[in-house]
Amino acid sequence: MKLKTVYLLAATLILQGCVLTKIASVPMRLGGAVVSIVPGVGNSAHDAIDTAADGVDDIPI
Prior knowledge:
Layout: H1 2-35, H2 42-57
């Protein structure tokens, strides 16, 4: 019974990093989608925000 608890705790800790980076990157991506509506500078701002969100997703937490 204790071994199952250790496995569950280890899986939770490993998956926690994915959740933490998604908490940061999803609002960035939504903001980039909203900014992309602005004529002229919207697409370049969206691309910059999307690149930053990709960087956040790559952080090994």
